[in-house]
Amino acid sequence: MNFIEIAANLLSSKTGLDQQSAAKTIQQLIGDGQGGIDLNRVINNFQQLGVSDLVSSWLSTGENLPVEANTVENALGSDTINQAAQSAGLEKNMLTETLSDILPQLIDKASPQGSLLDNLGGAAGLLNLAQNFFRK
């Protein structure tokens, strides 16, 4: 099972969306535009909001600290949340509450040893990410 399927399963189980709709919603919210998920962008957005302690707990091997729905909305963007909710036929509040529950789990699952490096494809993936970053 790939990471999008894991995320879609979590979203589907909490909202009642079918798998295809849940996967589309995940792509709209945290997708990289190429069929994958951009957790680095999500993490950076949270860190820019000043909640690095939350992010650190999700990346570490310990307990995940909870995140408020309004913090999730600020990190992902109100417009993005509104569009995804409308597309999925969900209330915005339901979506942000659900995301506040599942995002820590997703980031935790993506960093089993406390690092996203392995999920980026190791050092080569990190180099590719850096090259793409500096091209912009």
Structure description:
It is a single chain. By secondary structure, this protein is mainly α. The chain has a single domain (3-135), classed as YidB-like (Arc Repressor Mutant, subunit A, Orthogonal Bundle), CATH 1.10.10. The chain is built from 8 helices and no strands. Helix 4 (52-59) crosses helix 7 (92-110). It is globular, with a radius of gyration of 14 Å. The N and C termini lie far apart (32 Å).
Question: What tags apply to this protein structure?
Answer:
136 residues; mainly alpha; Arc Repressor Mutant, subunit A; 8 helices; 70% helix; disordered C terminus
CATH-defined architecture: Orthogonal Bundle
The average pLDDT value, as a whole number, equals 84
Global structural class: mainly alpha
Topology, number of strands: 0
Number of domains: 1
**What is the quaternary state of this protein?**
single chain
Assess the beta-strand content as a share of residues: under 5%
Helix content: 55-70%
- CATH classification, class level: Mainly Alpha
What are the segments in which pLDDT stays under 50 over at least 5 consecutive residues? 117-136
Radius of gyration: 14 Å
**CATH homology superfamily:** YidB-like
The termini sit apart by: 32 Å
**What coarse outline follows from CA principal-axis ratios?**
globular
